[in-house]
Amino acid sequence: MPQRPEADRIRERPVRGVDFRVAGPTRTCVGCRSRVPASDLLRFVAVGAEGDLRLQPDPGRRLPGRGAHLHPDPACFAQAERRRAFGRALRLTGVADTGLLAEHIRAVSVPRGTTDDGAVSAPSMSSKVGRPR
């Protein structure tokens, strides 16, 4: 049976410069509005009743409910807060507490080898510079 040419054209056409065969599913970051592979973003959901809504991070992508995605970066988080994007992305009527999500992003975004006060810890290997032979 011959293949239909329109089916080939639809499969091969790139959408917004993303190759779905390589990248997998794409999602939009609610902070910077860029479309990236879902594996690069942190999913979060709204948990609780109408009066007590909290944004809970979902790194395992298994929590029930409507989810939204955000880069695990404090800059994207701040931009989403400034734009009030959390309520729109999750279709919330009330204001949600962002404390859990902010804490998770801070914990994930701290580079390895640094401490909470921002000082970089010393490397574990000692240097041979300045040692007598």
Question: Can you walk me through this structure?
Answer:
This protein has helices spanning 5-12, 20-23, 74-83, 85-90, 99-109; strands at 26-28, 35-37, 42-47, 54-57, 67-70. With 133 residues, it is of the alpha+beta class. The strands form 2 sheets. The chain has a 3-stranded antiparallel β-sheet with strand order 4-3-5. A two-stranded antiparallel ribbon has the order 1-2. β1 (26-28) and β2 form a beta hairpin. The chain is flat and about 70 Å long. It starts with a helix and ends in a 24-residue tail after the last helix.
Furnish the topology, listing elements before pairings.
Blueprint: H1 5-12, H2 20-23, E1 26-28, E2 35-37, E3 42-47, E4 54-57, E5 67-70, H3 74-83, H4 85-90, H5 99-109
Antiparallel strand pairs: 1-2, 3-4, 3-5
Précis, in short:
This protein is α+β, with helices and mostly antiparallel strands and 133 residues long. It has 5 helices and 5 strands; from the N terminus they run H-H-E-E-E-E-E-H-H-H.
- How many individual helices? 5
Q: Unreliable stretches, pLDDT < 50, 5 or more residues?
A: none
Number of strands: 5
Gap between N and C termini: 79 Å
Strand order of the largest sheet: 4-3-5
Estimate what percentage of residues fall within beta strands.
Answer: 15-25%
Q: How would you characterize the largest beta sheet?
A: 3 strands, antiparallel
Structural category: alpha+beta
Mean pLDDT: 81
So what's the overall shape? flat
